[in-house]
Design brief:
Rossmann fold; alpha/beta; 35% helix; 3 domains; 629 residues; seven-stranded antiparallel sheet; 17 helices; binds 2-deoxy-2-amino glucitol-6-phosphate; globular; Glutamine Phosphoribosylpyrophosphate, subunit 1, domain 1
Length: 629
């Protein structure tokens, strides 16, 4: 969580930092701050509580002459989202400034020791121990050798890092070395951008692309010294690292809201194009001669797989639940989905020939990465060949930690998602699971080639179905949002392949509208949740033709009998007249429906939140990638 941006070069740092922070605000928006070393070698800092615009107002008309600086946008972990806890944080002499992402787990122990030495803390954060410790190290190292001040700072930071526990990324500046920037990471992302005569470092690529498209992703536990003259990268053994820079893909460079009021709406509208791209990339150009799904890795290792386990959080977990439905019901392979945060501490006993799939759009979710790391380690240390880790990652970020952890990556290529509530990346994850289900159906011969061709031809129709659906459902959702302006609770029902869509619909509504919502398998409602139903609690029910259609309609009847206002997401067909309001779906194959039913869920949440005047793209308390446990 939190966004870091830092720069050293020849231009004024302040505008570069502010521009970078604008691009990183999706990572957290509890407070923001910058620190710059000015031309008189003074450390100048400005911080503000709340969103970046408050900091920008504060900075208005201010100039700081200086080309070395760090900036931060915060998602609070330790200490309330108030000014004193905003980053950067300083040592007592205000010579060292630090911004940090992640958590320093042993900060209390370190803080107590520093307090015994007489250090007075100004914040409740875990971060503040770092500048105090660095200052102490600088003092011990003797700071008078200013010719090598950058190296001195590097050594000081390295010594401090060796005492830090947790997962974090930091950027450090010191007035004693007015062009040196030190950055370091441990299980939290940092990318270095190589500009002309200047270097930037940030938590994510959007903060860098206005300066350069050439980047060096830092590996885990690396630190670097950046000056306008060059970069030195070191691993945890203090060995100098050399690697070639890479160029960012175009999709990683363009972040454009187009004509849309919010990124979320634009990202919902992006989905047909994502489907078109997926078809091209995974099914191939010549669909008449389709043989197998195209992967960027050799799928030979999947032949012996007997079971699948999927680890994910939040919306990614909902995509995994649909994936598991497809893998079991379509491809016939037993599949279990775990909350990554639970799996880490209570994994099932080891079983042989299992494929572990990690799903994370950001590729940086700490719970998912920790669960995967744990699983890889316990399988490797088992010593048994059949227990060896077989791994696939599904992510939207090829430059992320999961892509470095797992060799076999399915890139959903949805383009960077800025809206904090995931929409198009969920859709991209779903498509990846359709691909995997086809692959396993082929490997296990659980479907005939005719059945597989049928699935392919239905998938090919998705982009055009979606284009029409989004336009019509957008109008409907806007209208319905007016009717729902005062609701406080909503129940979402789905069954079979659409049950996870009910969960996702409820999550989206909670996240951006702050309305309490719960999703249930429709058949479960009578076992308890039905007690909640009354006139003021609308029920949104997904009823698509297939093996549970009549059952869902009966469950909807039960809700109607309790006076609930019934919204149906269903085709106009016999049975659906029961709904007070119908959001119509086209008729298609049952397997395809999650790719369509998710759209009205997304649009409804969007319009309800927008109608209430809420900050749709940056909902309260959330951040785009949750890099803390
Ligand atoms: C999505 O709308 C949420 N903000 C959240 O549940 C998210 O899906 C979850 O934190 C997992 O993120 P990831 O896909 O980046 O791992």
């Amino acid at each position: 969580m939190c966004g870091i941006v830092a720069v050293t070069g020849y231009r004024q740092a302040l505008p570069i930092l502010v521009k970078g922070l604008e691009k990183l605000e999706y990572r957290g928006y509890d407070s923001a701050g910058v620190a710059v070393i000015d031309s008189n070698n003074n450390l100048i800092c400005h911080r503000s509580e709340g969103k970046l615009k408050k900091l920008k107002n504060k900075l208005n008309k201010k100039t700081i002459n200086g080309s070395l600086g760090i900036g931060h946008t915060r998602w609070a972990t330790h200490g309330k989202p108030v000014l004193k806890n905003a980053h950067p944080h300083f040592d007592s002499t205000k010579q060292v400034a630090v911004v940090q992402n992640g958590i320093i787990e042993n900060y209390l122990e370190l803080k107590t020791k520093l307090e015994l030495d007489g250090i007075v803390f100004n914040s409740e954060t875990d971060t503040e121990v770092i500048p105090h410790l660095i200052q102490k190290e600088l003092h011990n190292l003797g700071t008078l050798n200013l010719e090598n001040s950058g190296s001195t700072l590097l050594i000081a930071v390295r010594n401090v890092i060796s005492d830090l526990e947790g997962a974090y990324a930091i950027a450090v500046i010191w007035s004693g070395s007015p062009d040196s920037l030190i950055v370091a990471r441990k299980q939290a992302p940092l990318i270095i951008g190589l500009g002309e005569g200047e270097f930037v470092c940030a938590s994510d690529t959007p903060a860098i692309t206005n300066i350069t498209n050439t980047i060096l992703p830092m590996e885990d536990e690396e630190m670097a010294l950046l000056t306008p003259l060059g970069i030195e990268i070191y691993n945890s053994e203090n060995e100098r690292q050399y690697r070639n820079p890479i160029s960012l893909k175009l999709s990683e460079q363009i972040i454009d809201k187009k004509q849309f009021k919010h990124y979320m709406l634009k990202e919902i509208y992006d989905q047909p194009q994502i489907a078109k791209n997926w078809i091209k990339q995974f099914l191939g150009n010549d669909l008449s001669s389709f043989t197998s799904i195209n992967y960027s890795f050799d799928i030979g290792f999947l032949e012996n797989i007997e079971q699948i386990q999927i680890l994910a959080c939040g919306t990614s977990r909902h995509a995994a639940l649909i994936g598991s439905y497809l893998l079991e019901q379509y491809a016939g392979i037993p599949t279990t989905v775990f909350y990554a945060s639970e799996f880490r501490y209570s994994p099932p006993p080891l079983s042989p020939n299992i494929l572990t799939i990690g799903v994370t759009q950001s590729g940086e979710t700490a719970d998912t990465l920790a669960a995967l790391n744990m699983e890889i380690k316990r399988r490797q240390s088992s010593g048994k060949e059949s227990y060896k880790p077989n791994l696939i990652a599904i992510t939207n970020r090829l430059d992320s930690s999961i892509s470095r952890l797992i060799p076999n990556v399915i890139d959903i290529s949805a383009g960077i998602e800025i809206g904090v509530a995931a929409t198009k990346t969920f859709f991209g994850q779903l498509l990846s699971f359709y691909g995997l289900a086809i692959t396993f159906a082929q490997l296990r011969k659980s479907k005939t080639s005719e059945e597989i061709n049928n699935m392919i031809s239905n998938l090919i129709k998705i982009p055009s179905l979606l284009e029409d659906l989004i336009i019509s459902h957008n109008e409907i959702a806007e209208e319905l949002a007016h009717n729902f302006s005062n609701i406080k609770d909503v129940i979402f029902l789905g069954r079979g392949i659409n049950y996870p869509i009910a969960l996702e619909g409820a999550l989206k509504l909670k996240e951006i509208s702050y309305i309490h919502a719960a999703g249930y398998p429709a058949g479960e409602m009578k076992h308890g949740p039905i007690a909640l139903l009354e006139k003021k609690v609308p029920v949104i029910s997904i009823a698509t033709p297939g093996n549970v259609f009549e059952k869902v309609i009966s469950n909807a009847q039960e809700a109607k009998a309790r006076d609930s206002y019934l919204v149906g997401i269903a085709p106009e067909c016999e049975g659906t007249e029961i709904f007070d309001y119908l959001i119509p779906l086209p008729l298609t194959d049952e397997w395809m429906y999650p790719l369509l039913t998710v759209v009205p869920m997304q649009l409804l949440s969007y319009h309800i939140a927008a109608h209430r005047g809420l900050d749709v793209d940056q909902p309260r308390n959330l951040a785009k990638s949750v890099t803390v446990e």
